[in-house]
Amino acid sequence: MPETPSANELQRRHVTVAVGDARLVGDLTVPRDARGTVVFAHGSGSGRFSPRNQYVAAELVRGGLATLLLDLLTTDEEAVDLRTGHLRFDIGLLAERVIGAIDWAASDDLVGALPVGCFGASTGAAAALVAAAERPRSVAAVVSRGGRPDLAGEALRRVTVPTLLIVGGRDVEVIRLNRQAQALLGGPSQLEIVAGATHLFEQPGALEQVATLAREWFVRHLSGVDV
Question: How confident is the model at residue 8 (pLDDT cuts 50, 70, 90)?
Fold first, then answer.
């Protein structure tokens, strides 16, 4: 298990990413000698304060990876989505925002030279995969946690980067959808089923397994180091 970086080994910044008319707020954390940057794509009403994604992000930082946790919806959009629930399923909109975050990272003075990975949860997984299809030279790896990769549609065939799909063992329908999506992916992929876990990985030790799998996948495919 990698050691937790001390506060003086981390750089943290509150950032604003402009995508079209939207101004998206996020948090960038960069450990010393970072090996890559992971952009988080939240879904299903979640955001950068999701405790599950914050936990995974902290584990990635422990592995020497920078993380960008971004709210993909503006405050006004979140208010609308809270009432209607439709924006969280607007994969085109979410993917556009993830692509904007990837482009922003590429131009940032602190992390611009680092390879980029995408971590997507729920509907955000589909957005991450669409972004990987649209930015094949920018995105080096994708991880999906309890995701709906099937919602990426035809873009799946254009995803050529290594993709890890993590699903809870008791999330039966999502396992089926992930297997269908995996068969369509245009690049190498792996499906990991966390035994006994439900959709949100709330069981003891389940989220820890997710974080370990994600960290090892990104370290391997962003830096070429086997862990």
Answer: low
Find the domain containing 18 and state its range: 7-221
Is the model's pLDDT at 135 over the cut of 70? yes
| Residue 227 located in a structural domain | no
Q: Is residue 2 part of a domain?
A: no
Indicate the pLDDT class of residue 75, thresholds 50, 70 and 90: confident
CATH number at residue 155: 3.40.50.1820
Q: Is residue 1 part of a domain?
A: no
Domain-located, residue 213: yes
What is the 3 state secondary structure string of the chain?
CCCCCCHHHEEEEEEEEEECCEEEEEEEEEECCCCEEEEEECCCCCCCCCHHHHHHHHHHHHCCEEEEEECCCCHHHHHHHHHHCCHHHCHHHHHHHHHHHHHHHHHCCCCCCCCEEEEEECHHHHHHHHHHHHCCCCEEEEEEECCCHHHHHHHHHHCCCCEEEEEECCCHHHHHHHHHHHHHCCCCEEEEEECCCCCCCCCCCHHHHHHHHHHHHHHHHHHCCCC
How many domains are contained in the chain? 1
pLDDT digits (tens, 9 = 90+) for 11-31: 999 999 999 999 999 999 999
